[in-house]
Design brief:
single chain; mainly beta; eight-stranded antiparallel β-barrel; five-stranded antiparallel beta sheet; about 40% strand; elongated
Length: about 230
């Protein structure tokens, strides 16, 4: 009898908590025009008219949202941009008889066209080389004799996510070290994930937002619920 009573109490507590939580589905707008859209356990942060703003992705992020209680939400992006880029990274190694054995020719294939990317190349001999990647300049040749190599890729300029100059996304992408044999002097680096929206999107991991009446406050910004 005691166990039955305890079970009934737990069921009542569960449903009381579930139905006491505020219904948060809908769209919440910021004065600047961006908004949070919540549907079931998922959310999107959207910036409309992105082309006129010089931004290539209307959806800044999408992910899962969990209501902690009546006052707080936890937000997590569905995808980690670093993991996605690394998963899609392809490096083709090959010898080139037209090059000397102490040179390395590197050609990048990135669908990024929004300006210039600054690519820094790290070698095992503690030497660093840099060049500006663009649609008209996709390759470089450096002195190199085998060993580990890695790349750091970042935009020459990127628009901040807020008027105060804050960034909520990834600002640079750094590859893991990989080994090149001495007879390899020509490589192609293909990262299809680094497109025009790669450095624009938000990356949210374990962020908390407050629920205040019919508004959501996230990173100090107020998003008010609307039926539009």
């Amino acid at each position: 009898m005691m166990r039955k009573n305890i079970f009934i109490i737990l069921v009542i507590m569960f449903f009381s908590k579930t139905y006491s939580q505020k219904k948060i589905e809908g769209k919440y707008y910021k004065e600047s025009g961006s908004y949070i859209e919540i549907n079931n356990d998922y959310f999107k942060i959207i910036l409309p008219n992105s082309a006129s703003n010089g931004i290539y992705s209307e959806i800044r992020t999408e992910g899962r949202i969990q209501q902690i209680d009546n006052n707080f939400l936890e937000l997590n992006s569905l995808k980690d941009p670093f993991i996605e880029a690394t998963r899609n990274l392809e490096i083709i190694r090959k010898p080139d008889r037209e090059l000397s054995n102490d040179s390395l020719k590197i050609k990048f294939f990135l669908p990024y066209t929004n300006g210039i990317l600054r690519i820094t190349i790290y070698t095992e001999i503690s030497k660093t080389f840099s060049f500006n990647y663009s649609k008209d300049n996709k390759e470089c040749t450096i002195p190199f004799i085998g060993g580990n190599i890695s790349f750091l890729i970042r935009p020459d300029y990127i628009l901040p996510h807020t008027a105060e100059g804050l960034f909520y996304g990834i600002l640079e992408y750094n590859t893991l070290d990989f080994f090149l044999e001495k007879d390899i002097n020509n490589i192609e680096v293909n990262i299809p994930t680094i497109d025009d929206s790669f450095f624009e999107k938000y990356y949210i991991k374990g962020d908390y937002a407050r629920i205040v009446n019919d508004s959501i406050i996230w990173k100090g910004e107020i998003y008010r619920k609307s039926d539009k």
